Amino acid sequence: MKKIAALATASIATVSLLAGTSAPAQAADWNTRVKCEGTDPGGRKIPTRFGNSELGWNHFSRPHKIRTCKAVNAAISDNVEEKDDNRFEYWTDMKNGSKYVRVVVIAQYSRRTLDKKYDAGAGQKIGVITAYCKGLDTCPPWVN
């Protein structure tokens, strides 16, 4: 009886290991709901999705202290530079008296991210990957 139990345990362990290595890669878990949306100078609608800790609102809002859509949409509607493979960099200079800060937004205007890890779904765009104030760890409160 002990031999059968030991053999069964070894078999289950082997099957578990093999199943773990042969399973197909799953798409990353992320919230595709749209928090806000801006239109760039080229007429493209750029969504800011809630996302997760790697992209979207949940990625940049807490660490960079961007609390409203105002700064993100201001950058999207102002200046744009197209990078590789439908990757866009947007920016705007925001002023408060004699102080100013450049808000930068990086967006992916395609269904999937470049690494194919994230998929927005048929007919949808990934949108904003990140946003930050250039040269600063956190944005000043007045950008919100």
Structural features, described:
The chain is an alpha+beta fold and 144 residues long. It has one domain (31-143). Helix content is 27%, strand content 33%. It has helices spanning 2-22, 57-64, 69-78; strands spanning 31-39, 45-51, 79-82, 87-96, 99-108, 127-133. Strands 3-4-5-6 form a 4-stranded antiparallel sheet. β4 (87-96) and β5 form a beta hairpin. The longest helix is centred in the first third of the chain and has 21 residues, at 2-22. The chain is globular and about 45 Å long.
Condensed summary:
This protein has 144 residues and is an alpha+beta fold. The chain contains three helices and six strands, in the order H-E-E-H-H-E-E-E-E.
Task: Give the overall silhouette.
Answer: globular
Give the mean pLDDT: 86
Q: What is the strand tally?
A: 6
Q: What structural category do the secondary elements indicate?
A: alpha+beta
Order of helices and strands: HEEHHEEEE
Instruction: Determine the fraction of residues in helical runs and give it as a percent range.
Output: 25-40%
Give the percentage of residues in beta strands. Answer: 25-35%
Low-confidence stretches: 7-26
Number of domains: 1
Assembly state (oligomeric): single chain
First and last CA, distance: 70 Å
- In spatial order, strands of the major sheet run 3-4-5-6
What radius of gyration results from the CA coordinates?
A: 22 Å
Number of helices: 3
Reported for the largest beta sheet, the result is: 4 strands, antiparallel
